[in-house]
What does this fold into?
Amino acid sequence: MHNFSPHDENDLVAALRAGDESAFTQIVERYHANMVRIASLYVGDVQIAQEVTQETWVVVLHSLNRFEGRSSLKTWLFTILTNRAKTRAVRENRYVPLEDSGELDDEPSVAAARFRPESELEWADHWKSNAKPQTWGINPEAHVIAGEVNSVIASAIAALPTHQREVIRLHDIENFSTDEICNILQITPTNQRVLLHRARSRVRHALELYFQRSP
Amino acid sequence: MTCKELVELVTHYLEGALDVETRARFDAHLAECKGCTAYLEQMHKTILLTKRLREDDILPPARDELLSLFRSWKA
It folds into this structure.
């Protein structure tokens, strides 16, 4: 079976048009799970998100001959998905814009109690001496990372509010570019960065607690 | 720049999105603050560790359904 890299899209499109099943299986495996999650951000329901994603695949297959490659296949696919999900969400009165979700409200990256109070004048808002971050003795470049560390990160991500969760997944795990994420989620680069920062700050906090317990 | 301000700017810093003047103040603070240096390193490690995670495969039922969709499209 030929493996299509994310970079040889022309081959992939040609194979799909020719009806190559392994090409279709690969693109489904690459994007389907992301598509369902992104659709659920709009429609707020996994069942409906699956329907929207299924419909998107139908549209994609039937429009394949009209795909001209002006945008990448990935961008094209996700644009179709996002438009359909949003239309469906509006129709069912389920659409909650990011601005109304509360995820952009002020939220400190680190608990205020770890910084010195205003009364300490020039030292105000600097780390308290007993609350300074410590260096972690883990090397992320090492080949073996304890499975526990992965579970700590996975649970922290699972507990994030929906938009933060999606942004950190797409950006840090799935390697989507900032442009792609802004298009898919229809958010500004500034909001994308705010969400990414909050998500990473919460994951960092979870890891810090873990490393304090098991250094 | 205070430590409390710095921790809010780490993602902007790592993504290269700070203006020149703020970046200079960020670097100047880091040079004198062990706590923030450790914090930045923690965030960097957090990102690298997160990047190592892999998504679960999609559920087999969805795959079968989609394949039959593909076959009927092809036919």
Notes: The interface with chain A takes residues 2-5, 7-8, 10-12, 15, 17, 33-36, 38-39, 41-43, 45-58, 62-63, 65-67, 69-71, 73-74 of chain B (CB under 8 Å). Chain B has a mean pLDDT of 89.
